[in-house]
DNA sequence: TTAACATATGAACGATTATTCATATGTTCA
DNA sequence: TGAACATATGAATAATCGTTCATATGTTAA
């Protein structure tokens, strides 16, 4: 029983703790429906800001703000083409995290 | 929270959309460092509320409040033994979601 | 029963954050 | 050039949420 205490205390003092804070920040990004819908929109293909805004029927600035959050967290990347900026998922982790979450939600 | 569900029904008819809102709610739960640390503490074994509070050096009521959130979202389950209540991870999805997130955080 | 302990809960406070509005920046083409 | 369009950004507002404090509920043992 005291063994447990020791183990827990030990576990939570190591550098892994700092990583858990980073991890929380990452999940925070996934924890917003607008951002999730944006990412879901980008599942199949890249899309411009305007296209996403129209698809989700939301303000352009709202989408832009949230895309910035996604980009800051390296979840999406951009490609400029003339006046438009096309966003796409940055890597496959994004899909995998979402799919893993879906497993839980879909019971 | 209810506002969002309203929007789903009212604005759009894509069935997957409602699931995305549920998914956002799930990720919200993972998006807090205290809850993540609690879950991480339960990775190896069950622990009582007091043990967790001591391990994380946080108020008992804080842990209790957060355990309720985790339990409401079916991420942890309980076992009563006398005065103590022992919490443990509810299923393997929890571990998998966290590990998948770690993959991204650890570059 | 009562005392002691373990956990849960409600209210209040502070901090964070998503959205909107207005405007700025940046790009193309006449 | 400058007009038109696409995107980004800053400030303000409103809503959400984590923590704390005080207290309630529940359990055990005397």
Write out key terms for the chains shown.
alpha+beta; 64% helix; 13% strand; DNA-binding
Structural overview:
The structure is a homodimer of 107-residue chains. In chain A, a hairpin with a 2-residue loop joins strand 2 and strand 3. In chain A, helix 4 crosses helix 5. The first copy, chain A, contains six helices and three strands. Chain A is 64% helix and 13% strand. The radius of gyration of chain A is 18 Å and the shape is globular. The N terminus of chain A is likely disordered. The structure holds a DNA duplex (30 and 30 nucleotides).
How many helices of chain A? The count is 6
Q: Please, what is the average pLDDT of chain A?
A: 86
Q: What gap, in angstroms, lies between the N and C termini of chain A? A: 34 Å
- Principal-axes geometry of chain A comes out as globular
Lateral strand order in the biggest sheet of chain A:
1-3-2
- Stretches of chain A where pLDDT falls below 50 for ≥5 residues? 1-14
Helix content of chain A: 55-70%
Q: How do the SSEs of chain A run, as a string of H and E?
A: HHHEHHEEH
The chain pair with the largest interface is: A-B, 42 and 46 residues
The strand count of chain A comes to: 3
Query: Over the alpha carbons, how many angstroms does the gyration radius of chain A reach?
Result: 18 Å
Share of β-strand residues of chain A: 5-15%
Structural class of chain A: alpha+beta
Q: Main beta sheet of chain A: strand number and arrangement?
A: 3 strands, antiparallel
Oligomer: homodimer
């Amino acid at each position: 029983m005291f063994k447990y205490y020791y183990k827990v205390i030990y576990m939570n003092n190591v550098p892994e703790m700092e990583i858990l804070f980073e991890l929380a920040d990452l999940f925070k990004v996934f924890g917003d429906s607008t951002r999730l819908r944006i990412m879901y929109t980008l599942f199949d293909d890249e899309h411009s800001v305007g296209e996403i805004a129209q698809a989700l029927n939301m303000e352009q600035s709202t989408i832009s703000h949230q895309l910035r959050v996604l980009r800051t967290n390296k979840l999406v990347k951009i490609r400029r083409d003339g006046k438009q900026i096309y966003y796409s998922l940055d890597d496959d982790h994004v899909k995998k995290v979402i799919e893993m979450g879906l497993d839980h939600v879909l019971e």
